[in-house]
Structure formats: C-alpha cells, structure tokens
Amino acid sequence: MTPTLADCRAWDAEDSLAFTRARFRLPEGMIYLDGNSLGALPMATAGRLADLVEREWGQGLIGSWNDAAWMAMPARVGARIAGLIGAEADEVIAADSTSVNLYKLAAAALSLRPERRVVVSEPGNFPTDLYVLQGLCAALGLELCVKAPEALENALTDEVALLVLTHVHYKSGRVHDMAGLTATAQASGALALWDLSHSAGALPVDLNGCNADFAVGCGYKYLNGGPGAPGYMMAARRHHAAMRQPLTGWIGHAAPFAFGDDYAPADGVTRLLTGTPAVIGLAALEEGLKSFEGVSMAAVREKSIRLGELFIALAREAMGEAFDLACPADAQARGSQVSLRHPHGYALVQALIEAGVVGDFRAPDIARFGFTPLYLSFADVFEAGRRLKAVMDEERWTAPRFSERRAVT
Amino acid sequence: MTPTLADCRAWDAEDSLAFTRARFRLPEGMIYLDGNSLGALPMATAGRLADLVEREWGQGLIGSWNDAAWMAMPARVGARIAGLIGAEADEVIAADSTSVNLYKLAAAALSLRPERRVVVSEPGNFPTDLYVLQGLCAALGLELCVKAPEALENALTDEVALLVLTHVHYKSGRVHDMAGLTATAQASGALALWDLSHSAGALPVDLNGCNADFAVGCGYKYLNGGPGAPGYMMAARRHHAAMRQPLTGWIGHAAPFAFGDDYAPADGVTRLLTGTPAVIGLAALEEGLKSFEGVSMAAVREKSIRLGELFIALAREAMGEAFDLACPADAQARGSQVSLRHPHGYALVQALIEAGVVGDFRAPDIARFGFTPLYLSFADVFEAGRRLKAVMDEERWTAPRFSERRAVT
C-alpha cells in the first residue's frame, strides 16, 4: 500500500529530526530535492556574514586575522567536519575547491609510494575526479587505470600507488564498500583516497573505522556551506609526517610570517594548505556545519532511507510503466538520493521545477532527487509525489519550453 | 618646508579622487595605512552579500547558477580586473587563491617551453611565489634559479623557460621595469609571468603594452575584495590555444555539464579554471572592483605619489635621526607604499596601531605603510605624521606590551 498523507503527517509528528527544519530558510511552496547539489540556506548564515563583513572586516580590518581568528578558520572548520566523517579533529582541514584539494591530496598520497606508477579509479566517477587525476598523472608521468567496480580488485596490482573512489556515486547514488575496498587496496600495498562529496552529511562516514588513508569532500552540498563553498581534505594521522604535496604556498609553510625564501612544510594537515584562507566562504561553511549540532548521523541515515523509500513508492505509483529506477533498489546500497531514468529526463525535471519540485538532471536521461533529512519532512515528499503524478498525468514535459537544454550544475 | 595641515586641506579640496572616499566604510578615527595588505570595506559589499545569500541562494537555490549568472562570475570579474591591468576582457579570469593560480599559470607557461628546464625568479620575492615555484619545479623536475635583480639579465640563458617576478616588491615597494625585463626574457626565448598583487589597483599596469605573457594577482589588497578574496590569472591571447595547466577540473572543461569521462580543455582562459566558482567570495571581489568605476589609474598614481611624498616628509621630520627609508626615494621607482627601517620595527608598528595609525610590520625590521588614494586624504596622512611624531617623541615602542611578537599578515 502506498503511504497516505495521513501516514506522512504521523511520521513527521514522531520525527526526532523535525527540530532542525527551523535552522533553514526555504522558499515558500517549494519542495527542494536538490540539497545534494546545493544545500539550503541556514537561518544563521546571513547574520554571520553581515557581522563578519561589517564588524570583523570593516572595523577590525587587518587586525582581524588575529583578533577574529581568521587564520585559525581552516583548522576550526576542518575539526567540525571531522566529527561528521569519522576522523580526528587534527586530520581534517578546510580550503580551496574539492578539485584543487583532490589534486593536492592525491599528490600527497603519491609522495608516499614513489616507486609505484599507477593510479586506479572507476569509469563514471564524478567527472572532476577523473579530470583531476588525468592532469596529475600526466604531470607526474604516471598511468591512470580506470576500471569498473567489479574489476577493481584485479586492477590492484603491486604497481598501484593509489585507489581513488567516490563513496556515493553522484548519478546512481550507489554506496561503495569503503572498508572492504580500502582493505583490498592496502593489501596490495596501495593507499585509498575517498571523495565524500555525496556522502558526508548525508550518511554516517567512518574514515578511521575503515582505515581510510585520505579523503576530500565538498562544502556546498549536504554541508550547506553555500555556492562554491570551500572543500576539505582529510589525511590519516599516520601519514602526516611523510606526506608532501606540490602546491607549497605560504599558508602551508612551517613559519609563514617569517617570510623566508625557502619552503618548509608545516606540521600535520596544515601543510596541505596553499594560499590565504577564503575567510568569507569559510564563515558560511562554518554556519552550514552548525546545522548538524545535536544531530546523530545514524538518525540522519534512518530518516534519509525512509524519505527515499517513500519517494520511490510514490514515484512508482505516479509514473506507472514509465517508472525506471536508476539507483540501487536496496536502500542500504543507496546514498541519500533517488535517480529515475526517463527518455525525456531533462524536460521532465524542468516540468517538475515549474511545479515547485526541484530536482536536477544528469546526462543523458537521469532525473535525480536528493533527500536532506535536516530540512525535508515526510509530508514534503508526499507533496512531491503528488506533483510528480500531475506532471506525468498531463505529460507536461512535452511543452515546447522544456525542449532546449541549459547548463545545470 | 614640511607641508602644513592647511596645505593638506587645500590639496584635499582640489583632489579629483575625493569622491571615492564615500564608497568605503572606515572606522572612526583610524588612519588606515594597510590597504596594501587588506583593502577597506566598500559601502556596497554588505548589501550585495545579503542579497546574494538571502535572495540568490536562499530563494533561487540551485537555479541561481543560471538565473543569477553565478557560472559567469569568474569571467565577469576577470573582465573588470582586465580594465585595471592593461589586458583584454577575455584574457583575465578570477578564481582560487593567488598561490594556486601561480602554480597553474606557471605550469601553463612551462607547457609552452617543454624543452627548457629552468625557471628564474629573485631572492626576497614575496615568499609564496618562491615556495610555489619550488613545489612546481620539484614536481616537474625543473631547476629554480633565484638571482638578484642586477644579475637577472645574465641568468636569462637559452635554458630558461620562464621568468617570474613581482611587479612591486611587497616589502621595499620597489617597482620593476616590466617592459624591459619582459623584453629581456623574451629575447632569450623565455616567457615572463608577473605577480601584480602589490601593483594592480595602486598604479597603472599595462600588461599588453609591455607584451607580458602571463600575470597573477591578489583580490584582497588594492582591489578591496575582502579577506581571502579570490585571485586572478591573466594569459595573453596568443598563448590561449596552446597552453595547458595540470589542475584540470570540471569547470575548466570544454563541456562541464556533459559529464564525460575524459578531460578536454575549454577555450581561452576558462581552461585555467579548476573547481566550482567561489560565488560568495567572487561577489565581494566584484563589489571591491566597482570602487574603481569612473576612476583613472593615472589619477590614482599621481595622488599615490603625492601621499607617499607627503608621508616621507612628515616621517623625516617626526623621526629625525631615526628616519631610515627602506624603499626607493625616487617616487617613480616606488609602488604605493613607504617602508621605514627601525631597530624596534615591530614595537613601533604596534605603538602606532594603538595610536590609531594602522601600518604593518615585515621581518626583520620594516615598518610598512600603504597609501590607497581611493580612501585616504592628504589630511589623513598629515594626522598620521602627527601621531607618528608623538609616538617617536614619547618612545612609546619601549612599552612592555609591545615586546612580544604575534603573527600579522
């Protein structure tokens, strides 16, 4: 039996995470199913940025690097992220973009395996991961070996320095076995680097429990840091002393304000930094992370699965024969998103947006819907299902205004 | 004769740039002589960020990548910078930190001279420039050759791929001969890359007039973009088709939203991009750049020189025998800053800050004062001289609270 609105309201009344909805500002009437692409605006962010700009910058000026602890922000924000991904506070630092961070961190990993010449990843990984690894391997004269998941184990020969995978697939939502694949990589002498962009903040991540070596992730999806927020890097403590990365800027120096001519790496993850911290972006990210205060990631995962299962049931009913699931049907194997394949996927997503249900499109034919337990209710998802049914029943995706593609991130 | 307050007021009354002071918010009573380290807050920035956060992000959410033209920001902000540095709009793009940008752009330059193995710079260059070049040369197996300015010409052999210099020296304020050094480098077959962090927005820069190949620069000094603002990269159009850089992220891809597995570089300077644009930081930088609307850089330079000369005259009188100029005495050879050497430089700067005159200290003994014509008056500089005299007369730097060093950027 497909759940009813009454069922959903009853679940909302008992929802242990219902209190976090008040931490976000969302447009009236919109069902936002794209927090996996750009997280919603926390209530506190605008006030924090106004204070940062008007008081810390405008009044404190240069003195705020010390007085407002701007210099400490990469480590302080990193420590907050560490709590969400199963790492120690001193193993995570926030900076730069996810792509730049992947370059630096993969290079740092490779510095620990100088005698090995191969990096392994999988086809269909989030494209920037593959592009960055292509650029890094070309620069260092290494080989990038891209193998489908079922062939990964055989690909992990004793020539492999590093395995780079995304924990939750951006399009299909499939969850990789982080512990198992890390162990397989390490058994061959390789290191494992995980991209957490589509998992951190959406489900429990236990980097140290999985003995992961390195991780990167995105600040503007489930972490609610705002458009183009800084990303982050995690390096297991056992690698800190030996790892080296090539973007050796002054903020990663052991004594940045001595202004000496020769680079010497700072201790710990600080050596992963390069340029001056992006203070305004880091402040917005810090506010986004505060949305998780008092929240158990186990509770987030449980609600996320229930929201996803509810949406699948409603979509199955709404779409009838057109229903075509493009993500794992097993909720345990799926991240916090549901993907549906549709021959008019782009136009369908546009028609839904017009109806106030915001998901997104991923080429060639995937309509993708993200479920963010901090600000979505069961009744919201019920309403999304109702609107999807109306769009399907009226075949609204056939409208001419949806025929043209625009860039959508 | 040292100028009087009446002289200064008369000059202010005739100052063609006096109108731009109203574009900035400065603390009451503070004479801010550190805009060369962190530019002051433009009046419009807080409002712009509030609108960006509350309306574009909070209401527009993911749709704002298109609807609010977030994707276009790196190019749009770059085009605005181009007008200040003698480049074409399509030759400049804003992104990342200055340090990350230098890595990418130096690598792009080196991709054009694959048969040459040496990079040349000068000792005492802004440290991050040397650190980044050290990291890049180590990664690529190249040699970094650091030569004093008078030995640069001899160092430019036919093995040199790239000359990297900072246009205005961060500590001494010395201005390099961009046209002459670029021509010398190019005569040997090398390329020239200029760091404009301490010149753009402070004096006229004419990259194309000097036939420069590449340039990077900082967004948070004279460009008033806020703490940790994105930097920028300039590549002369003649290099666009052939240049390659290794941080090949999705935003530098020819078709980022096709989500293909293989990297293909975008046209023009867009291929210098890597990760998702830092939208909030770029918006603040854009507001900073608007401070230059209707402003002639020739007028900025003329006023900057007059402010600097005035300060030197006042400091000479205030300091007597302790006066020790650590920057070129010839105003034409000096950027928009005045550096004074003092055995108790750190404590002197602290005592001045306490007196409401904010300069900064650069190891080991330099007190550095920046002059930003958009928001400083002649009367401000007169008042700074008066307070400097009081600090000197009373030897306030001997106070115990100034004996301990803290980090100052």
Q: Give me the CATH fold name of the largest domain in chain A.
A: Aspartate Aminotransferase, domain 2
| Strand tally of chain A | 14
Instruction: Tell me the strand percentage band of chain A.
Output: 5-15%
Q: Low-confidence runs of chain A (pLDDT<50, min 5 residues)?
A: none
Question: Which oligomeric form is depicted?
Answer: homodimer
Quick summary:
Chain A is an alpha/beta fold and 409 residues long. Chain A is 35% helix and 13% strand.
Plain-language structure description:
The structure is a homodimer of 409-residue chains. Chain A is α/β, with parallel strands linked by helices and 409 residues long. The first copy, chain A, has 2 domains: 5-42 and 296-402, Aspartate Aminotransferase, domain 1, CATH 3.90.1150.10; 69-290, Type I PLP-dependent aspartate aminotransferase-like (Major domain) (Aspartate Aminotransferase, domain 2, 3-Layer(aba) Sandwich), CATH 3.40.640.10. The first copy, chain A, has 12 helices and 14 strands. In chain A, the strands form 4 sheets. Chain A has a 7-stranded mixed sheet with strand order 4-10-9-8-7-5-6, with helices on both faces. A 3-stranded antiparallel sheet of chain A has the order 11-14-13, with helices on one face. Chain A has a two-stranded antiparallel sheet with strand order 1-3. In chain A, a hairpin with a 3-residue loop joins strand 13 (360-362) and strand 14. The longest helix of chain A is centred in the last third of the chain and has 23 residues, at 297-319. The radius of gyration of chain A is 22 Å and the shape is globular. The first copy, chain A, starts with a helix and ends in a 16-residue tail after the last helix. In chain A, 57% of the residues are buried. The mean pLDDT of chain A is 96. The interface between A and B is large, with 95 and 95 residues.
